[in-house]
Amino acid sequence: MRIVKLDENTKAQALEKLIGRGATNYGDYEKTVQEIIDNVRQNGDDALLEYSEKFDKCHLTADALRVTREEIEEAYAALDPELIEVMKKAAENIRSYHEKQKRNSWITTREDGVILGQKITPIAVSGCYVPGGRAVYPSSVLMNIVPAKVAGVEKIVMCTPPGANGKAAAGTIAAADIAGATEIYKVGGAQAIAAMAYGTQTIPKVDKITGPGNIFVALAKKACFGVTGIDSVAGPSEILVIADETANPRFVAADLLSQAEHDPMASAILLTTDEALAQAVSDEIDGFLKVLSRKEIIEKSLTDYGYIFIGDSMDDLVEAANTIASEHLEIITRDPFAVMTKIRNAGAIFLGSYSSEPLGDYFAGPNHILPTNGTARFFSPLSVDDFVKKSSIISYSKEALEAVHKDIELFAMSEGLTAHANSIAVRFENQE
Q: How far, CA to CA in Å, does 199 sit from each of 48, 114, 196, 293?
């Protein structure tokens, strides 16, 4: 793994490469995605069945798109019972964590007759997309559906691609049932996003779509935003580790590789002040690559987007971390909590040698659907807030409005909005 001196030039070069991985830079695919969306809008289920034949190599009928209770039971039977129990434990951890995010509606009153407040309302129907293909991710099912359930969403629709046998992955189906999905459909890709955004004869239109996917899914979410809500246009996975001389190089290497194996475009970065640690981590990575199953993917990821930066001070490392704004940030230092207080931009922060990134992916409870591609500067992890709406409440008595009506009229007139001013003034025209 390349070892580079950290300075403004090398940081800028790395950042340019990392940002270049984003879904916004895949214009070549946008035409194809728009054609898929248009086809689904016009032809509904027929288009979905056409794409199942073309992309998933399976023949389905409209009646077979929805996963039946019998198929759910088959999925449970196909899985190791121990894995099912682990998924249930993880779901409970996720549920417990997200319960703490719930907000209540509130009202304030004043003696002059002013009532102000905020009403919290769950969205009616949420849509969850779960990819198939290269890997199956029951963990993403839990992370998408459990917060929606906690928020109070009544109908939760999940789409996931079928295999050539016409069945969706057993782990995905079981996880959806554990999490509380109300409807599960065997549809993948951009066509699934279009189906949830616009609705078909079988699949209902949803209010918001969440969940990861390939470039076609990401661009379809981007294209459908406005018709439906989305969580974000996610980019490839990324991890950044801040480590000092106290860190175990084998642990650090293993953690970097945990994200590099996701995708050839995944990013893995180490920031350290210790040259000996840098070299030791690089050596450990070479050793792990001899035994890990996804070697080719990892090597491509590290060649294109892997860095070990050596900085002069911990402040330099923190500044670089805040500039990169990584999806996952591990801090493995003598005092990780002190370093954490200086971090402004990160999706999820893992503190200490025994808080490795996969802990967050699978089990701890915080959401693993996180801002990527530097968007941790302004985005947050998926949460209960993503599945509720906030409505303002305003009520003024006649006396309360009378006390301020001239102020409001003056403000409206200053903007040239005479009808606005008149809407207030008309209530007091007989008192002048």
A: 11, 42, 5, 40
